[in-house]
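Action item from last week, closing it out:
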Amino acid sequence: MNKISLSYASNLEHNFAQRLIIKTIERVTGKKQLEKLYSQYTQEQNDPKDFWTDILRIMNIRFINKSNNKILIPTSGSLMVIANHPFGIVDGLILCSIVSKVRSDFKIMTHETLKFLPQLEEYILPVDFSGNDKKTIKYNLQTAHEAKKHLNNSGVLIIFPSGSVSTAKNLKSEAHDDEWKTFPAKLAHQTKTDILPIYFDGKNGLLFHLFASKMKSSTLKYSSYIHETKKKIGKQIIIYVGKIITYENISHIKDRSKLINVLKKKTYDLKNE
C-alpha cells in the first residue's frame, strides 16, 4: 500500500509553528478519511491516465453541466481553460477530469504542495504563494516560462486566474474570486491561444469563510482546505461550460487588465445564459 500524507503545510511557505497548526487542524477535520480513499485508489491499480476521474468516482463526487453548451475539448492544438475557484481542490480535480477524457497533454497551474502525489507530478505547474522575495519570484517565473512553453507546444493549460479560493461576504451571499491576475491575458497574447471558460456554482462552508474572509489568516485558510474537500464527498457539483473563445475574437483587446476583466465577466455570466 502506498502511504502518503495529505497536507497543505508547505516548507516553502510556512514556518514550523504554522505547519504544526495546519497539520493539526487537517488531522481533526478530514485528513485521515481522504488518505484512506487515496489508499483505496492505489489498491485498485487503475490506469494512471484515468487518475482524475477515478479519484472523483472513489470520492463519489459528480458534476453536471447545466449550460446549454456541450463540453467540447479540441483533440489537438493549444487551449487555455479558465475558471472561478470556489472550492480549492475539487474544482481542480473536475477540470482535470474533463480535459483528461480527451487530452493527455495538459497541465494545471496550482499550489506547489500538490506535487506530493506521484500521479499529479507530471501535470502540475507549481506556484509558490509564500511572498515576493527573490527566491519565490524566481520560482514562479520559471513556472510562468513553463506555462508559456507548454502552450507554444500546443498543449492544454488549466488555470484559476484569481490565484486564490473564492470568498463570500456572508453566508447568504455568493462566493466571488478576488481580482483576477493578468497573467492569463498575457499568455493568451503571447501564444495566441483559444480560451475555454468554465463556471463553478457553489462555495465552501462557514469554517472556510470565517477563516478566509474574516480572520484574514492564510495559515487557518490552508488548514481548512482538507476539511472542505472532505465535505464534498458524495456531493454533486454544478458547472456551466462556455463556448471556446477564439484568440481572433479577443486579439484586439491589447490591454491585459481589460482583457482579463472581459474573460472574468464571460465566465461569471455563464450561469445566467
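Closing note: Residues 23 and 144 are 29 Å apart (CA to CA).
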